[in-house]
Design brief:
The chain has 318 residues and is α/β, with parallel strands linked by helices. The protein folds into two domains: 164 residues, Thiamin diphosphate (ThDP)-binding fold, Pyr/PP domains (Rossmann fold), CATH 3.40.50; 135 residues, Rossmann fold (3-Layer(aba) Sandwich), CATH 3.40.50. 42% of the residues lie in helices and 20% in strands. The strands form three sheets. It has a seven-stranded mixed sheet, with helices on both faces.
Amino acid sequence: MEQKPMRLVFGETLCELADEFPELVVLDADVSSSTQTKWFGEKFKDRFFNFGIAEANMVSAAAGMAACGLIPVVSTFAFLITLRAGDPVRSLVAYNNLNVKLAGGYAGLSDFADGASHQAVMDLAVMRAMPNMTVLVPSDIETTRGAVRAMLTHKGPVYLRLSRDVVGSYHEGDESFDIGKARVLKDGDDITLVVSGTLLPKVLEAARELDKAGIQAAVLEFPTLKPFDSETLIHYAEKTGAVVTVEEHTILGGLGGAVAESLSEAYPVLLKRIGINDRFGESGPYKDLLNKYQLTAKYIYEAALDLLDRKRKKNTSQ
């Protein structure tokens, strides 16, 4: 299986789409070697702008560029876009519904070496709550490439969440990306596993182990967190009666929050949210952090079994 750093896929795709989108300009905040926008900067020098470590100023300038008809892609670390530059994102970009694309790199725990200060574990909650903001969370090479094209085509503010980690290919070359639509990667009648982002292979592995145990798990991927595809979620909630959500983000306000909100209003079922439990990250090897925060196939598998046991007890008592 082909593997690449997600940030490199992002940088390469921007270069590939530059001629197709002549209004495209890229802004970075002195981290282009990390975010991989350096490739665009080297190839299209007159369409690349380095603002130094002045993220709020960068977003403000992007708002002005969008107002003049350009398509600015603002790229830096996710926590800097959503928190340090949060005021202009809200007041200038979102409030005015401007066509600015915000690429938040090194999201989740993937900035493992820099620790809690740099790890964006609440960025999706911030951006989901932002009026007019579309939120995209790719999982692999195909969805990253598709998400970049989709965000450039979409009219209005977009937040694109990107990982520092290497990602594989789980969509058989399919780079299509329909904003607002979930993907059914596996059908099943017993339990529904819902995932957003780079933990997708962990969920697929857990689903394979459940198959071995005679348990048919449906796997739903949500590459778009906002707008949220409640219709597909509710269909599978009705079908299976039990839902597990998996995300590299706090369980508050991200995928787990979106699922809980949708189900509580339309079709309440048993729900287990797997994610970061209301705490900051820390420094350490990435794999070790995923293990510590129980973001692994083993834990997903065990959580599914526990939820199925609760489902059986609930059905027996009725």
